[in-house]
Specification:
By secondary structure, this protein is mainly alpha-helical. It has one domain (4-147). The protein is built from six helices and no strands. It has helices spanning 4-8, 11-34, 36-46, 54-74, 78-102, 120-147. Helix 3 packs across helix 4 (54-74) and helix 5 (78-102) packs antiparallel against helix 6 (120-147). The longest helix has 28 residues, at 120-147.
């Protein structure tokens, strides 16, 4: 009988987790790529990114999300992509958490770029939900990293 650890590291599960996580990142990237000014406004509301870097972040971050999502779906650079996705998720959690602590009701900007008509209470609830979702995605990253331990080793120096 297989142990829980063996089941969690099974290639069958890992491929499905990679594809699911990759698709989530692809879907999240597309609206941001299609509307950089709205995404820049959302980033501005976080009050974390320095003003001079706002437009650069709004242009680069969605393409990075798309690239990492495609890499996970295709199974290329999967360990590297998972590590970078994990880093992005930690940054997203910290950004949302910081604004939750300050009581600053912002639109997450994760999948939808408009928060029109939502009350402050609804936005705060959306932010808490986004943090929980991102923590769940971090578990998916952990599964990929655990299952791919030892892969993508660097080439030894000559």
């Amino acid at each position: 009988m297989k142990s829980l650890r063996d089941r969690l590291a099974s290639p069958w599960l890992t491929v499905r987790v990679q594809i699911a996580l990759g698709l989530i990142f692809i879907v999240a990237a597309l609206p941001k790529i299609g509307d950089p000014p709205s995404f820049a406004h959302i980033l501005y509301n976080y009050r974390i990114v320095p003003g001079g870097l706002l437009n650069l972040f709004a242009l680069v971050l969605p393409w990075l999300e798309l690239l990492l999502g495609v890499a996970l779906v295709l199974g290329i650079w999967k360990r590297t992509a998972a590590i970078l996705v994990g880093g992005l998720l930690v940054a997203f959690i910290m950004g949302l958490g910081w604004n939750l602590l300050r009581g600053n009701p912002i639109d997450c900007g994760c999948f939808d770029l408009s928060a029109a008509g939502r009350s402050a209470g609804e936005r705060l609830l959306d932010m808490r939900t986004a943090v929980a979702r991102d923590l769940g995605m971090l578990l998916l990253v952990a599964q990929i990293l655990g299952a791919t331990r030892g892969e993508e080793k660097t080439v030894p120096a000559r």
